[in-house]
Amino acid sequence: MRFALLIYDENTANPSSEPPDPAIWGTVMNEYNAYTQAMRDAGVYAGGEALEPNPTATTVRIRDGRTTMTDGPYAETKEGLGGFYLVDCANLDEALEWAARCPGSRYGIMEVRPVVDFSQYAPEAAAAANGA
Questions:
Q1: Whole-angstrom Cα distance, residue 71 to residue 32?
Q2: What does DSSP assign to residue 75?
Q3: From CA 36, how far away is CA 93, in angstroms rounded?
Q4: Contact in structure between 89 and 4 (CB atoms under 8 Å)
Q5: Please, what is the Cα angle at 124 between 64 and 131, to 5 degrees?
Q6: 9: helix, coil or strand?
Q7: pTM over 0.70
Q8: Are strands 109-114 and 58-63 parallel, antiparallel or unpaired?
Q9: Are 112 and 5 in contact (CB under 8 A)?
């Protein structure tokens, strides 16, 4: 089963105007690189990316045929979505174990969500979801 491990933290929602301390940044990146390699070695890594902070977001809405674009994220929250991993695990318990191992669980919070398996619906829906 595929799961999204969503990484939320306060610095993404409200980034500092000061650049991060290089020593701290290096330590954090080493932790994430080791975590990612552990997932690759275990065969569960299916993808992932870090995201720019909330203020860089643009929200798009279409209502009554009119498109509105707004600077900033959809919701103002204490914590912002800073990145994600896509994992392929045997079950939810395994995905939760990987989420608990993520460095992001120490700096913010982790949200684990199952990815929709369109193959359980009509075959044409699964093909469309996979870009066929």
A1: 29
A2: S
A3: 19
A4: no
A5: 75
A6: strand
A7: yes
A8: unpaired
A9: yes
Structure token pair of residue 5: 């491990």
Per-residue pLDDT reduced to its tens digit, 42-78: 999 999 999 999 889 999 999 999 999 998 777 777 8
Distance, in Å, from the CA atom of 98 to the CA atom of 72, rounded to the nearest integer, reads 30
Q: How many residues does the chain have?
A: 132
Q: Is pLDDT above 90 for 2?
A: yes
Predicted pLDDT of residue 20: 85
Query: Which tokens go with 93?
Result: 């318990």
Rounded to whole angstroms, what are the CA distances from 115 to 81, 94, 101, 105? 17, 14, 20, 20
Tell me the two tokens of residue 81.
Answer: 């979505």
CB-CB neighbours of 94 under 10 Å: 16
